């Protein structure tokens, strides 16, 4: 808050605040309108051209150069600020404990990106990866979608979980947790399964190799899930326990449903040229019938998952990106430190 007193002779006027908290006094969040948030990018020369953005964004996602400059660039700078200061803390802790950086190397910063199906979290994760990798220190940034840790469709069918695909129980959580722990332990070479949205399934025998990232972006529906209670005296951990910075992409449920249906139509249009596409089987349906089916899938699977599992994790995020009906980010909420 600015001082209402007039500055005395020789005094300097304090710089004008670019952001203000709109949360209740003592509340845990800062809420920043987009117009104010965009000023935080300053004079950074970093940008992404239209072709790069079109390559990175999801089907039917309207994200453009203005969104990158006004929203994602300041966000990438905030993440880099956290990484820089974690590095200082790592050095200070090593000195305090009398440890050598050679024997206790710095571990990767893990950034979680969460939100509903079709809300735009994949676009957010890809843009952050690109911006962070192009930053001043050019860190090695790797993006891992947690879709790769879904059980294969055959396994889901065998377990009666096909109608629960995307729910926490449809993932190989042990493998996902083991992967995250390996990365956070500083293991230099790890690998992940690969999921294909064209096949709507895990790609058999294919794995992505990951080598010593400086930043790992973990994108998925359930990355902010808390640990579940263990049996008896056993304690349990969750991947969220190893996430250093997290982003939740948020919007009204009705808007997300509309975007989900629109995206299903976009997938079906693409299936015309992809013989192996899962959506090829629906090419014969009329638009009305296909739209009805998409709404049924939303109501039966995605909406319950959003309400029961995904939305309750929103308050656990470091940053919440709030979208309006036009799919554009309107406000940014940041957890206070």
TrEMBL record:
Gene3D superfamilies recorded: P-loop containing nucleotide triphosphate hydrolases
Keywords for the protein's UniProt record, in alphabetical order:
ATP-binding, Coenzyme A biosynthesis, Cytoplasm, Kinase, Nucleotide-binding, Transferase
Q: Gene symbol?
A: coaA
Query: Per UniProt, what is one Pfam family of this protein?
Result: PRK
Q: Name one GO biological process term.
A: coenzyme A biosynthetic process
| The protein's name | Pantothenate kinase
Where is the Phosphoribulokinase/uridine kinase domain positioned along the sequence? 110-268
Alphabetized CDD domains for the sequence: PanK
A GO cellular component annotated for this chain's UniProt record is: cytoplasm
Q: Where in the cell is it found?
A: Cytoplasm
- Principal localisation: cytoplasm
Pathway(s) the chain acts in: Cofactor biosynthesis; coenzyme A biosynthesis; CoA from (R)-pantothenate: step 1/5
> Which E.C. number(s) belong to this protein?
2.7.1.33
Similarity annotation: Belongs to the prokaryotic pantothenate kinase family.
**The protein's enzyme class:** transferase
Instruction: Mention one GO molecular function.
Output: pantothenate kinase activity
Catalytic function, reaction form: (R)-pantothenate + ATP = (R)-4'-phosphopantothenate + ADP + H(+)
Q: Binding residues for ATP, per the UniProt record?
A: 115-122
């Amino acid at each position: 808050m600015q001082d209402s007193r007039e500055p005395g002779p020789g005094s300097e006027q304090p710089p004008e605040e670019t952001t203000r908290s709109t949360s209740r006094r003592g509340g845990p969040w800062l809420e920043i309108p987009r117009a104010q948030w965009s000023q935080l990018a300053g004079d950074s020369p970093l940008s992404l051209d239209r072709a790069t953005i079109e390559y990175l964004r999801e089907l039917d996602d309207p994200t453009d150069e203005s969104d990158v400059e006004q929203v994602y660039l300041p966000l990438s700078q905030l993440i880099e600020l956290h990484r820089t200061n974690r590095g200082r803390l790592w050095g200070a802790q090593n000195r305090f404990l009398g440890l050598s950086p050679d024997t206790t190397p710095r571990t990767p910063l893990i950034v979680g990106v969460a939100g509903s199906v079709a809300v735009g979290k994949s676009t957010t994760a890809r843009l952050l990866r690109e911006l962070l990798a192009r930053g001043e220190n050019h860190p090695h940034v790797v993006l891992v979608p947690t879709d790769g840790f879904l059980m294969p469709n055959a396994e889901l069918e065998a377990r009666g979980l096909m109608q629960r695909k995307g729910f926490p129980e449809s993932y190989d959580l042990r493998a996902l947790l083991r992967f995250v722990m390996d990365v956070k332990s500083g293991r230099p070479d790890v690998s992940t399964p690969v999921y294909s949205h064209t096949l709507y399934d895990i790609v058999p025998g294919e794995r992505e190799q990951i080598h010593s990232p400086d930043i790992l972006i973990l994108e998925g529906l359930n990355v902010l899930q808390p640990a579940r209670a263990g049996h008896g005296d056993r304690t349990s951990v969750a991947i969220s326990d190893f996430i250093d910075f997290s982003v939740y992409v948020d919007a009204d449920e009705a808007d997300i449903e509309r975007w989900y249906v629109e995206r299903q139509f976009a997938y079906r249009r693409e299936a015309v040229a992809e013989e192996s596409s899962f959506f090829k089987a629906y090419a014969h349906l009329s638009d009305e019938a296909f739209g009805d089916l998409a709404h049924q899938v939303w109501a039966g699977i995605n909406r319950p998952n959003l309400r029961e599992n995904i939305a309750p994790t929103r308050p656990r995020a470091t940053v919440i990106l709030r979208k309006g009906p036009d799919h554009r980010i309107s406000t940014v909420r940041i957890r206070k430190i």
